[in-house]
Amino acid sequence: MGRCTHKGCGQEFTPENNGPESCTYHPGAPIFHEGSKSWSCCSDVNRPVLDFDDFMKIPGCTKGQHTDEAPQVAPKPPPAPQVDLKMTSSHGGSETYSSAPVGTVSSAAPRESAPTPKFEEEEDDLSAPVPVGTKCRHNGCNVTYQSDELHRKEDGAEAECTYHPKPPIFHEGSKGYLCCKRRVLEFDEFLKIGGCKKGRHVFVPKQKADSQEEQFTECRIDHYQTPTEVHASVFAKQADPNTSTVKIEENQVFLDLYLPAKKRFRKTLNLWGPVNPEESSFKFFGTKLELRLKKKDIRSWTLLEKTDRDLGNINFTFGVGGRTGTIGAKELILDDLNRART
């Protein structure tokens, strides 16, 4: 029995059950950009996701036959060696330069590495039933469940799992896992990286007892403005709208957001200018909280919050270009004076 090498499939098959539409796969290449993950062949149908597990669950967009042939990888030209040009002599107005490979020795002091986060592994709930065909949840393991005798009992023929206990990492084109040192460039090669730890399969994870300890976290806040409103996005993914609190006052906004995994974000925004609480509003989305703040006057907000820092001479522009304070605008909005001129 072979295993299909099509991206997004990975199922075992035999020639007898390999029909013309037995395989559902992705013919395109994966796209990783600024944390989002998608497939080039169906990015207009299946929107990008952030979590790698969700990316691996994106269903294939093309049907065909299974194959066990290794995918073709286009050869890459060797990278040009880096050189360091140095002036070796200067005489009569002419300068002579020589090149040498860049050395690896640096006089800069080594930066202290950030502490490694702890990862708690899942444990299989042996008392829970498992549907036939369920795939092991471990990274790097492609085993699908057939029976307890084969995959869950200690003396089962395929009960041992070889997997990666830590999540994948994608950095500047290289791909690998945090638990082992190997790094590759091609996504097909990344899927072939063998597990570095042996243990038991996890088909149905045990439910963890809820911890009573809350952990406060930080959330990114972006904003843009029009002559009459300020729109702020608080990137609090999957915040619970039933338990979270958002209170808009004339000069501040109080946020107390409850996030998954016992995390919590709390912050008071001391606004740059006054707003009308009655005409302001907010709305929860799956990945963020949107604030719409109605200005009490038409002054331009240099920042979202007041600050004691000397900002110097700042010119602020409304529109879709730029960065701080302008992102997210979708249409041109004019004040009453300029609207009358059009």
Based on the model shown, name its key terms.
single chain; mainly beta; four-stranded mixed beta sheet; 4 helices; 21 strands; elongated
Basic shape: elongated
Q: Count every helix, treating DSSP H or I runs of 4 or more residues as helices.
A: 4
Helix content: under 10%
Span between N and C termini? 71 Å
The tally of strands reads 21
Return residue spans where pLDDT drops below 50 for at least 5 consecutive residues.
101-114, 316-329
Radius of gyration: 28 Å
Which structural class do the helices and strands define?
A: mainly beta
- Main sheet strand line-up: 14-19-18-17
Describe the structure.
The chain has 342 residues and is mainly β. It is built from 4 helices and 21 strands. The chain has helices at residues 52-56, 148-151, 187-191, 336-341; strands spanning 2-3, 12-13, 23-25, 30-33, 36-39, 62-64, 83-91, 94-101, 160-163, 168-171, 174-177, 183-184, 197-200, 215-216, 221-225, 229-234, 245-248, 252-259, 263-270, 281-284, 289-294. Strands 14-19-18-17 form a 4-stranded mixed β-sheet, with no helix packed on it. A 4-stranded antiparallel β-sheet has the order 15-16-21-20, with no helix packed on it. A 3-stranded antiparallel β-sheet has the order 10-11-12. The chain is elongated, with a radius of gyration of 28 Å. Residues 101-114 and 316-329 have low confidence and may be disordered.
